[in-house]
Amino acid sequence: MCGGETEMQAGYDVRRVTELDEQTRINLCDAVHDAAARPEVCDAVASVYHALAEQIELRRPACVTSGRCCRFDEFGHRLFVTTMELAGFSAAGGFANDIAPLNGGCPFQRERLCTVHAIRPFGCRVFFCDETSTDWQRQQYATFHAELKRLHERLKVPYFYVEWRDALRALSPTQTSL
Q: Strand pairing of 109-110 and 8-9?
């Protein structure tokens, strides 16, 4: 799980990733802005996160607080987010946080800890370096990502599946030059 990048990692299907050309970036920003203003969207994301937390509590995969989950380039993995997750992050004040320069990892990691832990994206919540839980993680990712996709359709939120740092660059005015 903490090894090299593959086409399918912890359930992430890199074939469905949205590439952000200028028009797509504008569409993503508009979709996130509109969705963040809708309480039912944020409530739906919170519900998915809560259901995942219940599954994590049942399985109890080990977290050794190594920070590997946030050092994407170093450990060969990526974090992908959906429109609704970005909307929930935005509505919870995520973009008001100090965003460090993008350096191959998550800009919210400080001294091996997440500074946005309470509002972190779904992929962060399901990622554990516990090698005994790799198959479980993939199953949880597939299950809960499918639910997020259904919620996009049900709530009529345009679906984008974007790499986290690309999304931050697109959505954060302080990241446009990076």
A: unpaired
pLDDT tens string 34-71: 999 999 999 999 999 999 999 889 888 877 767 777 77
The total of other beta-carbon atoms located within 10 Å of residue 135's CB is 9
Residue 103 has pLDDT above 90, yes or no: no
Considering Cα of 31, then 36, then 40, then 43, what sign does the dihedral take? positive
Q: Hey, what amino acid is at 85?
A: E
Separation between Cα atoms, residue 105 and residue 83, nearest integer Å: 21
Residue with tokens 């809708």: 38
- pTM for the model stands at 0.84
Enumerate residues 6+ apart whose C-beta is below 8 A from 11. Answer: 126, 137, 138, 139, 140, 141, 142, 145
